[in-house]
Design a protein that fits this description.
The complex is a heterodimer of chains A (45) and B (187). Chain A has 45 residues and is an alpha+beta fold. Chain A contains one helix and two strands. Classes of the chains: A alpha+beta (45), B alpha+beta (187).
């Protein structure tokens, strides 16, 4: 395998890893509930 | 002073005493309660809250409470009641997960907030870190029918490239004096 082909493969892998990383970074997560009721607790002493 | 003058003076004095002792005179003099202008101002302050129409039944204690808290708001227990909740704003999937959590304990007496404690913290996965965590009250509070609390933090995550990724997460929650809360903003 020539040096040029090694570089191409490494760049391709880097590109794939970058795409996956961007997807993981930007997806998922949650927002706070739009509305809810708190749990009733004893007051502070 | 002659006899007739004394009679006139006595009648005038009795009339003044009766006028001062009448209920309307007592009401207009006021006491420890808020003045009518103050009550009117509070009423307008509370009336914009849209979250109470669907928050369930309650009972209004006293005309004054109804004036101060607005007609759509259930309220008013007989003693202080406290609630707590933790809300989370998060983004990303492992190893890029990042979140800001907000815990709030709030108490109310008669639908009016009288105590609030908040604490916030962040959670990050292995490739991220957090900084500039901040939380605090941004609206309402003691003496109001609600309190707004905001929590926010900045995040920096390692990327496969030569730069880092930066993110900002925020949540703003409104806690009501009847135990309900709602999200009024997030980023």
């Amino acid at each position: 395998m020539t040096l040029g082909r090694v570089i191409v493969v490494v760049l391709a892998l880097w590109f794939v890893v970058g795409l996956v990383a961007v997807a993981l970074y930007q997806s998922g997560g949650s927002t706070p509930p739009e509305r809810g009721r708190g749990t009733e607790v004893p007051g502070p002493r | 002073m002659n006899h007739i003058s004394w009679r006139v003076a006595l009648v005038v004095a009795l009339a003044l005493a009766a006028a001062l002792a009448s209920p309307s005179a007592l009401a207009s003099k006021g006491g420890s309660g808020p003045s009518s202008s103050e009550a009117g101002q509070r009423s307008s302050d509370f009336s914009y809250d849209p979250g109470f129409a669907a928050t369930g039944a309650g009972r209004i204690v006293g005309e004054q409470a109804a004036k101060r808290l607005g007609p759509t708001m259930p309220c008013c227990g007989d003693a202080t009641v406290c609630w707590s909740t933790t809300t989370t704003r998060s983004r990303g999937i492992w190893p890029y997960g990042r979140a800001v959590h907000l815990y709030t304990l709030w108490c109310a007496l008669g639908g009016t907030i009288n105590y609030r404690y908040s604490s916030a913290w962040t959670g990050v996965d292995v490739l991220c870190g957090s900084s500039n965590l901040w939380w605090g009250k941004v609206g309402g509070g003691a003496g109001w029918s609600f309190v707004d609390v905001q929590a926010q933090a900045e995040f920096s995550c390692d990327s496969p490239f030569w730069f880092d990724w930066h993110d900002f997460l925020m949540q703003r929650i409104r806690y009501h004096g009847n135990g309900y809360y709602e999200t009024i903003g997030y980023q």
